[in-house]
Amino acid sequence: MTTPKKIDPTRIKSFIRRQGHATAGQKQALESHWDKYCLSPQANFDSERAFGRLAPLIVEIGFGNGDSLAAMAEANPDLNYLGIEVHRPGVGHLMMLLEQRGINNVRIYHYDAIEILEQKIADHSLAGMHLFFPDPWQKRRHHKRRIVRPSFVELLNKKLLTGGYFHAATDWEHYAHDMLGILSAGTGLHNTSASNDFCERPSYRPLTKFENRGLGLGHGVWDLIFRKV
Q1: Considering only Cβ atoms within 10 Å of each terminal Cβ, which end of the chain, N or C, has fewer?
Q2: So where are the chain's domains?
Q3: What is the pLDDT of residues 12-39, one digit of tens each?
Q4: Which residues are annotated as a binding site for S-adenosyl-L-methionine?
Q5: Is 0.70 surpassed by the pTM of this model?
Q6: What is the fold of 23-37+47-228?
């Protein structure tokens, strides 16, 4: 009898690749601007070469349609932003925004974020990492797919500069408390909340239309900001 192969929980995907249907504008952006903004996951990552300059680097995991990432990059031209997203139409939408607004400080990986972080990003090189409204995997049997787990905290400590920060936001209260417990239990990261739990939304994180709609309906949003000490 063959012994079943054990699944390494650190390699479980925290996403399902859903390609969806791209709009005509998104398709045009994907065809016309891919080489300008998208980086090859097979090539080595060199921040100075990718952006044409050296500047503090912020990574956003799972930027969705890119509205928030584009807004942050436009408001902070002195920072470099690296967005990682598996949803191809979202990549196209972000490239549309970058072209329309003339934003030059964003580069994109259309790939698995954990693999990019592990294999392409130099240790102790990130000024910040953002994880805004990740899939909560609300069913208990799917909690193992949540991206914030002990192995992810180890990765944060490895990739962030001293003084660098990790900022997560979610509208799922259970996931917020789950992340708080995992981040607090890890070593090397300090909760910046004065009450040692959640933070007010900082001004640099844009309020999305979906979040604003939810707040109008009385839904909560929880922000966590931990800094590497």
Answers
A1: N
A2: 23-37+47-228
A3: 554 455 556 778 888 899 999 999 999 9
A4: 60, 85, 112, 135
A5: yes
A6: Rossmann fold (3.40.50)
